[in-house]
Each structure stands twice: as C-alpha cells, then as structure tokens.
Amino acid sequence: MDPDAARTARESLDLTFHMSNLLDTGLDRHTLSVLIALCDLGLNPEALAALVKELRREPHASSLPATSTAPSRLS
Amino acid sequence: MEEEDDQKVSDLIKELVLRLLSQNLTPDSRPIDPNSSDFRNSLRYAVRILSSRMTPSIAPDAAAIAESIKRRLATQGKSSEALTFAELFTKFASKSGPGSVNNKWAVLYLLKIIAEDRKASNAQLDSSLLLPNLALSDTELDNSSRVLRRLGTKEKGWSNGVLWVSKDPGNRLEIAFREFANLIKEENEVCEEVLVRDVLYACQGIDGKYVKFDKNADGYVLPDSVKVPRATRVMVRKLCELGWLFRKVKGYITESMDRFPAEDVGTVGQAFCAALQDELSEYYKLLAVLEGQSMNSIPLVLEKACSENYLSLRRLSVWFAEPTVKMRLMAVLVDKCRVLRGGAMAGAIHLHAQHGDPLVHDFMRRLLKRVCSPLFEMVRSWVLEGELEDIFAEYFIVGQPVKVESLWRDGYRLHAGMLPSFISQSLAQRILRTGKSINFLRVCCEDRGWADAATEAATAAGMTTRRGGLGYGETDSLETLVDEAAKRIDKHLLEVIYKQYKFKEHCLAIKRYLLLGQGDFVQYLMDIVGPELSEPANTISTFKLAGLLETAIRSSNAQYDDRDILDRLRVKMMPHETGDIGWDVFSLEYDARVPLDTVFTESVMAMYLIIFNFLWKLRRVEHALIGAWKIMKPNCITSHSFTKLQRAVKFQLLSTLRRCQVLWDGMNHFVTNLQYYIMFEVLEVSWSDFSSEMEVAKDLDDLLAAHEKYLHSIVEKSLLGESSQTLCKSLFVLFDLILRFRSHTDRLYEGICELQAR
C-alpha cells in the first residue's frame, strides 16, 4: 500500500478505536482492525456483533463439547 | 477474485476467533492452540453465526446511526462524550480513497451493537433472549439451557431438524417467546419497520414500497398480494387515514395556488391557504422526528432496558392521534370552502369554530385569525377612509356607479351573501352608513374635514389608521371602532349639511314659497299673475311670468330673504293640453342642488308640486270669493238702484241678491275653515314636528326619514292621499262651483251697474 493509503488507514483505525472506547465496547485495537476488515468485505455487522458477544461470554461456556449434536459444515 | 476474497474472509474470521477467545483467558491458563478441537468448534460456530444473517435489518445510513449513538450517549448523561463522538465521526466520515473504510455504516452499526450488548450483559440480563434464531446446543450446562428449534434457513441447506433439549420446566417463558418470535417471522412477509416507514411515506402522500394509493378503495392500502396478518393490515389502513386526509388538504392547496393567477381565488381564500400551509409545516416537523426514530430496529420481544425509542405501528397510532384530529378538521373545512369565497367562507369557517374541545377551539381560532384578516382590513379602510378596494368581490358592501344625486340612497348597499356570521346585521348597517357618509362628504360636499374626524375616531378606539391591529375574535374592538367612527363622521356630516348648506333654511324657504307660507307674497303674486293666467295656456310665456314673480317678490317681505334662496325659486309651466287655461298649469318650483337633492329628490319634489297645486287652487278660490265680496258688499249703488224698477222685478232682484249673499256666506265660511285647517292644523303642526326631529337627528338617514314623515303627514292630512280620494274629488267639485258662482255674480252685478248707469 502506498504511504497515503497507509496513513489514511491508520488514521481511520485510530478514529474508530477512539469511538469504540467512547462507547465502551471493550475491543482492543487488533480485534477492531479485523472486524473493520470483515465489515469492509461485506459481512453483516449484526452477525459479527452477535459472534463477538457469543464468543465473549463466560470462559467455561465458550469451551464446546467435543461432540456436537448439530451437524455443521464449514463454508 | 471471489476465492481470494473468500480466503481472506476465512483467514480473518480465524484471526478474530483467536483473539476473542484469548481475551477470555485468565492469566494463568494456557494460550489457545489454533489447532485444538475447541478452537475448531468455535470457528465452526462462528461461521454458522455469520452465515445465518445475510442482510441487515436497517438501511445503510451512517449519519442516522451516528445520530442515534450520539443521542444515546447524551441520554446517558455523557454529553461531553457525545460531542467528542460527533467530532470523531465527522473526521471519520470525511476520509475517503484508498485505505479508508468503505462500509462506514457497517462499522458504526457494529460498534453500536457491541456496546449495547456489553451493556446488556453487564446488567445481568439473560442475553439468550437476543438471539432467537440461533442456538447453541449445550447439554452440559448446569444453569438454564435453551431450547433450540431451528428453522430451515435458505441457501446454506441446513437440515430442518427440530431439537428439543429441555431441562428446566421453568423455561416455558423463553420457549413461548421464541415460538412467538418465529411465528411472527413466518406470518409476516414484510417486517414491521418497513411497514412503519411505508406508513410514514403514505402520511406525506407518497406511495411506499408496499403501501400504495388505491383509487378504487380511495385510500392507502396494502395490496392483498403482500402477506401480512389481518390485524396488521387493518392497523395500516387506519393509520393511512391520516394520509388520505393529508392528500385532500394538500390537493386543495395546490389547486388554489394554481388558480391564483386566474384571479379566481380571493384574498380570503389566499389567507386560508396560507394558514393551512402553516399548520401543515407543523405536521411535517412531527413527521421528520418520527422518521428519525423509525431508523431504530424494533425489538421483537420486549426488553426490560430499552435504550432507544423505536417506532412500531402501535406507537405510531398513539403519535398520530392528535394530528389526525387536526387533519380531519382541515379536511372538513376544505370540503366546505371549496365553492365559497370571501365573507361567506369566513362565516362558514366561523360556524365550525363553535366547538367545546379546547384543542379544536385553539386551532380554529388560529386559522380564523389568518383567514379574517383581509376582511377586517377591508372594514377598517372602509370605515376610516371610505375606500372600497374589492377586486375579488368578497366584501359585504357593494358599490355601484351612480349619478351624484343618488349616491346616498343607491350608491352602496349590503350584500347579505358575503356577510360573515360573526358580524351582526346592525353592525353591518352602521359600517355601511359610516363609509357612505365619508364618500358622500368627499364627493357631494367637497369637504375635507372628515379625515380629522376619522383619525380622532381611530385614536379614541385605541388603534392607528394604518393597516393591521384588528383580528378575528376582536369583534368588540371592531364595534368600538365602528361606533366611534360613525359617531364622529355623522356629527361632522350633519354639521356640514346644516352650516355649510343651510339645510334648515332651505326647508323653511320651501315651506314659505312652495307651501304658500309667506302670505303677503302669495297675495301679491295672485293679484299680478291672476289676469295673465286666465288666458289659454299656450299663449302664456314663461318669461313674462318670471318677471311677474320677481315683481311680486320685490313688493313683499320676501325681498329681505337670502339672495341664494330667492334665486332658486322659479316659475314652472306644466305640460298642457288644448283647452287648459293658465291656472291649471302654473306652478312654482324650488331648485335644490347637490348635496341637498339627496333629500329633495325628483319624487319628493313631485309631491311638493301636488301639494302646491292643491294649495294654489284653494288660494285661488279664496281670492275669487274675496273679489266677489268686493262687488257684493252693500253699497250705494245696489241699495239705491231699485227705486226706478217695478215692484215685482225689484222683489225678484232683491231675493236673488239675498240668496247670493247667503250663498256667499256659506262658501266663505267653508273656504275659511278649510284654509284655517290646512294652514294651521296641517302645515304648521307638521312643520313643528319636523323641526324637533331635525334637532335630534343623528345622521343623514334619520334626517331623510324625518322629512319623508313630514311630507307624508301633510299629504294625508290635506286629504290628498289615497284614503281620501272621494273626498278630494268632492272638494274639487266644490271649488269649481265656487268659481262658477263668482263668474255668475260678476255678471249679475255688472248687469245691475249697467242698469244703474241707464
């Protein structure tokens, strides 16, 4: 990336990080950058937020049983 | 490209999951191994979550989202943070080009939801309520677990298995909620927020995505092709009544504005449109606020701590209650006033204002104030300046171009159709008279003093002579203004009539000359003019008569009268046929010029003429009898004449003479009494009544009425009216008889004198 784009990206990230701190979301800079990238690629922000929330719950609840009764498929 | 993107996505997801899980770790546990099955499961779950919701439920509008975030911060009491956030957002939004974020709204929305979720979870809520569609099968949890029922989601081909994992019977509430939520999703093809937005569009007269205006049903409806439960359909229909009313009102306003250039709509109509538009702007404000709120998503199931205002159909119906009442009022008025104009429109709207509800009352008052302001302005300018500028024919006073003489009587009149109902008939009459007086003064009397009177009146009533200052609901102050103006202008008018134009003197002069009040003048006139008038009518010249009139005036007391008055007295010869002698066609007339000819009109003068003729005939008869007496009175000639005659002839002659005397006596008695009656009982009495009424007359109308009464009473009492036609005829027959008697006695006594001479 050329330096201008890099600077813009960095500044955008800073601004977003600042906003997220204001809103007390508890996201750190790196996670936030990943999330921004995913949003930019077109994923549904509601889904991303739900994911964040689910994965952030009690530590013991996040460890899944080895066998899952629901079939699943990787996309 | 697609695969690259997909690869990027999956990489990023992996990264995300890793980081999130790392956050949850306590310091002393081991770091997460990306290859553990735990991690992989989490990854799978993550992918599932991400695939299940493809489209967001709100419109991608970054500014609106930023607004709602700011508002939330403000309501939480963190106003300085709200300002900071606003600054950051502006900076963020201004970044564009390579390296910047393209879906800014997505980022903002994401932050918003994460913040809300965090808050909610910190408030110890059961966050499972927020994910109705997803489930985590968890058979090893010892706290409450959830029931999962998975719907068949579309493209990814999940199985439609139903899984019941129920551990705690007390979970029924959650079960019920979940079922309800799913039921709603099934029944509604369209979600509620979209419907709400469509309704808001409909209320501005615009067709929404699903709600369209149906000409047959004459309303905004959801077409049957859209699948929504009946309750929702009915509610949408009810809310769209507001849209229908709005359409009607707006249609009227646009129509009227199109007609403005054609000068079809009057000033009152224009004021009405302006007032309606003001009310509509209030309505638009409300709609703007509601639209802002409609951006928030509606939670399907009620949360205990709802942080923002959302807008559902039910809430909308509460918001719309008051605007619907107002809009209904406006629509009713619009229907009423479509064909009316001017004062009639104001009157119709006023009728609607008689309402007990304070909301309606205030609304109508505001509206009427605007609508009636042109009318009140017209009244003010009419009453204070006599100006009638009525291009659109909306005023209740109508003027027509007439000759100067009939300005007072016919120049202006009331148009009852345009009289609004809050101005009473008597007030309207006073208004008419005041303006008429000003115009009369200006045109007929060429007087300028009325302007001072007008300004005085205005200051007395507490307002200026400029525009404005009067409004609807101030009918009292209007009345005061009209009364003050009327009082002063009337007084001024009467002063002018009396002093400048000497009305009283002219009336007196008419009485003296036309009604034969000036005895000596009449006597001389008769003496001089008498021989002339015995000739046939067509040989008499008016000039000669005019000269004789002058002589008569100069020889009587009338010469001391005002020259102006004497100038107006003239001889008039009425149109004659053959066989008439001068006596029948002679009359006097009095020339009353402007402005007095308002009182002494043609018909009035004709009346005077009739009375004059009668009086003149009476006088002639009296004159004849007096002339006969001059001949008949006992004198030397008659008493000594008969000595030479034979006895029989003498006796006959004497008896005839005696009979003549007796007849003469009777006639004289009759005529004297009649004369007395006419002069004193009729003329003088009526004149004194008229004088006293003139003293107390307050305006020209009173004066006119008094004069009419005066004339009428004279006509009736001197037996010239319709009720005494037969009596009148007999009287004239008697007069003829008397005149014949005179001529006979003349001949008789001539004969006697001749006899004496022989």
UniProtKB/TrEMBL annotation, chain A:
> What cellular-component terms does GO give this entry?
gamma-tubulin ring complex; interphase microtubule organizing center; spindle
User: By its UniProt entry, which Pfam families does this protein fall under?
Assistant: MOZART1
Task: Cite the entry's keywords alphabetically.
Answer: Cytoplasm, Cytoskeleton
User: By what name is this protein known?
Assistant: Mitotic-spindle organizing protein 1
> What is stated as this protein's family in its record?
Belongs to the MOZART1 family.
Bilayer-crossing regions: none
Q: Which organism's genome codes for this protein?
A: Carya illinoinensis (Pecan)
Is Cytoplasm one of the keywords? yes
Q: What is the annotated localization of this protein? A: Cytoplasm, Cytoskeleton, Microtubule organizing center
Biological process GO terms, please? gamma-tubulin complex localization; microtubule nucleation by interphase microtubule organizing center; mitotic spindle assembly
UniProtKB/TrEMBL annotation, chain B:
This one is known as Gamma-tubulin complex component
Asked whether the UniProt record includes DNA repair among its keywords, one would answer no
For this record, the Gene Ontology CC terms, alphabetical, are: gamma-tubulin complex; microtubule; spindle pole
Q: Domain Gamma tubulin complex component protein N-terminal, which positions?
A: 196-499
What is the source species? Carya illinoinensis
Main site of residence? Answer: cytoplasm
Is Cytoplasm one of the keywords?
Answer: yes
The cellular location(s) given in this protein's UniProt record come to: Cytoplasm, Cytoskeleton
Kindly state which keywords UniProt assigns to this record, in alphabetical order: Cytoplasm, Cytoskeleton, Microtubule
For molecular function, the Gene Ontology terms on record are:
gamma-tubulin binding; microtubule minus-end binding
Q: Which GO terms describe its biological process?
A: cytoplasmic microtubule organization; meiotic cell cycle; microtubule nucleation; mitotic cell cycle; spindle assembly
Residues annotated as domain Gamma tubulin complex component C-terminal: 505-751
